[in-house]
Specification:
Elements lengths: L1 H14 L14 E3 L8 E7 L3 H9 L7 E7 L6 E5 L2 E5 L1 H4 L2 E6 L1
Antiparallel strand pairs: 1-6, 2-3, 2-6, 3-4, 4-5
Length: 105
Amino acid sequence: MTNIFIYEEMILKAKNNCFIKGEIAMKEKIISLNKLAIGSSGLVKQLTAQGNIRRRLLDLGITKDTIIESLRKSPKGDPIAFQIRSAVIALRSEESSKILVQWIE
C-alpha cells in the first residue's frame, strides 16, 4: 500500500511541475530546464548529469546560480536554444533535463 501512495503523490507533484529530491521543492518552483517555457528564465540549482555530459555543461558555464533564459525551440521541439550568460546555446532535451532550475517569475 505504501508504494501506491508514494506513486500517487509523485504523479500529483509532477502535475504541479515540481521536482522532488529528498525534500519538497514546490515553493521554490524547481523544474528541469527542458520544461521551462519559451521566454521564461530560471536560476540553476543543481546538475544531475554525470561524466562527460556534466563536464560539458560545466564548460558551457552552466553552474549553480547561473541565470538561463529559454529562447526558442526548433521546429520539431528538440533542441532548444537558451541564453546562458552572454551566449546562445542549443541543448537537446536529454541534456537539458539534467539541469534543475528555479523558475524566475
